[in-house]
Specification:
The chain has a single domain (3-180, 215-243, 279-294), classed as NAD(P)-binding Rossmann-like Domain (Rossmann fold). It has 9 helices and 13 strands. It has helices at 12-23, 80-83, 87-108, 144-164, 188-197, 217-228, 248-258, 283-289, 297-314, and strands spanning 3-7, 27-32, 51-55, 70-73, 111-117, 168-173, 176-177, 202-205, 211-213, 215-216, 238-240, 245-247, 265-268. The strands form 4 sheets. It has a 7-stranded parallel beta sheet, sandwiched between helices. The structure holds nicotinamide-adenine-dinucleotide and uridine-5'-diphosphate. Nicotinamide-adenine-dinucleotide (NAD) binds next to helix 1 and strand 5.
Length: 316
Amino acid sequence: MKKILVTGGAGFIGSHLCIRLLADGHQVTCLDNYFSGRKENILHLLENKNFRIIEHDITSPCCLNQQIDEIYNLACPASPVFYQYDPIKTVKTSVMGAINVLELANKIGAKVLQASTSEVYGDPVIHPQKEDYWGNVNPIGIRSCYDEGKRCAETLFMDYHRERKTRIKIVRIFNTYGPHMLLDDGRVVSNFIVQALQGKNITIYGDGSQTRSFQYIDDLIEGMIRMMETNDDFIGPVNLGNPSEFTIKELAERVLLKINTTSEIVYKPLPMDDPKQRKPDISLAQQYLDWKPKVELDEGVVRVIDYFKEQLYLFA
Ligand code: NAD
Ligand code: UDP
């Protein structure tokens, strides 16, 4: 049994990670400030004596006086709507959060995994994206608080590793979706499904020709755990994503095929710096983690539709 800290554990990905780690028999501490996560995602886990919750903001040092073997650092809003709400805070969460988590890991000798992102590649000019691509990021745009914050966090992880021998892992997560996303999360999969279930118009930003590669949550969790279990000399960064690429228009059409609705597609302005295409090259993850995604979009979307139907019924 390992003692594991999950920062951002009440969020979409973090709550699934806590559930899986508990099911694997570990002792799990969830740290969160509930900015973009919610207690309902994790409260039921308190029935398990191996689970505890700490309400804390990662921009302040973490004074944990318990033994911790592994830390997953997920604390950071990930939806553009949430990370652009208070951009200065977003940068602080990524940068000061990384420092605080790395200091803690150093002090207690824990291994620490950073949840980085495909956004470090910005609006990529290389396709698909491999880990050795340095990216194409606007440092002064409205997405920069997230992209540059995450890039700086990677820098900090590498520097703590080189300078202080901190045991680190970095995964770069591509667009992930699944249950536990908020109804008003703002990201495209949840938006389209919730809009269609409510009979509202499906909002495509731009002409819908931009692409994303959508990964189902269970595949990501498996990849993150496999990464944490690799030898100390393998630190990444490693892409974790589903290489099946779709235009946003195709996504809207697939959602509409699965939900009996009066919703129609409407077109809204494309936000500044919205990446035109994104698709992971996952050969590194296949080689080092023996991992590849199993859940394809049509199957994953049905699971999320069922989840949001239930949520809309509960909150009606
Ligand atoms: P999320 O917003 O659902 O979860 C983030 C969690 O972090 C929330 O519970 C939030 O309350 C918490 N948090 C935010 N700021 C905090 C702070 N200052 N102190 C403590 N807790 C704080 O997002 P998610 O989709 O679950 O993403 C989790 C992590 O994975 C993030 O670091 C994100 O950048 C990364 N990621 C996610 C995706 C994706 O597609 N979901 C893609 C790339 C990277
Ligand atoms: N998008 C859209 N309609 C929405 C929400 C998002 O067309 O209601 C588009 C958005 O402009 C982007 C893509 O879908 O091109 C993915 O957006 P999301 O916010 O999910 O993730 P990210 O842009 O961070 O990859």
